[in-house]
Amino acid sequence: METPTVDISQSEWEVMRIIWTLGPLKSSTLAAILTDKMGWKVATTKTFLGRLVKKGALVPEKQGREFLYHATVGEQASMDAAVTELFSHLCQMKIGKTLDHLITHVTLSKHDINDLQQTLTAKLPDAPAKVSCNCLPERCKEEVHEG
Amino acid sequence: METPTVDISQSEWEVMRIIWTLGPLKSSTLAAILTDKMGWKVATTKTFLGRLVKKGALVPEKQGREFLYHATVGEQASMDAAVTELFSHLCQMKIGKTLDHLITHVTLSKHDINDLQQTLTAKLPDAPAKVSCNCLPERCKEEVHEG
DNA sequence: AGTTATAATTTACAACTGTAAACGATGGTT
DNA sequence: AACCATCGTTTACAGTTGTAAATTATAACT
Question: Which architecture does CATH list for B1-89?
């Protein structure tokens, strides 16, 4: 079976990021960091921890009186899934421009850029001359104009 | 002022796509298309139309007994905003890989690819050798390891 | 003018989210 | 043994989302 990616909400991402970055943590550590970074009350962090455990994105490991929270889903896999999911709702025709906008505004290392260049180069030969719009169901690909 | 982008939910995107693609439409046309594409009941489409009007993403123009629903926000601008928003929750360090995954799995025209190549090439000179993780608040950039 | 089809608006309702307080259990302290 | 600081769990509560039925308004038809 594939990596079981879980639906993670915006705020829950913030919790996951810390754990992905630092490894398994106690709730008190998490809470401290997230109060600092997000301004959350301790109770808020606790709520998200509970929900993430219920969703299966985190697993608690008893350690003395507290728990260490371990991520069960991979960061890269989760990111890939979230991004793919979002793009699936967007018009295919506009994806090129959207990626262009994104790449323009995001921070990339020289290495990243080289990798992307290569991926693009590899993709070029099989690329179509034009991408068609996939916003309409098959039946409706003809003109419909009103107004 | 900038283009006023609106928060559009997953399902609402599907409504907007049709209007962005075909231009202003009557609710009956929309409902037919979305029943076809998404399997929605007419009432469901109506609900989303109402919400999108309330959110200001659509504006109804009376036309006889019905309304034509016009998009007030641009498709590209909305896509750019949605994608940027998502990426803002992701670890900077992993964005390169995420883009790579995305580019690998998405359909791009030769033209798109060329544009992206150019954007990347232009970005290369000023690109850092390494991107640092931005998942922790400033204070916490040192080691924290437990477990 | 009365009836009917249909368009728009209201209401419904459960699940998910953001945000957090309240409560109960438990290990550490006096 | 009694108390206190915490940790985890429950409860709270409003707003959003997905999904749709019910109701109301209204144009068109008879």
Answer: Orthogonal Bundle (1.10)
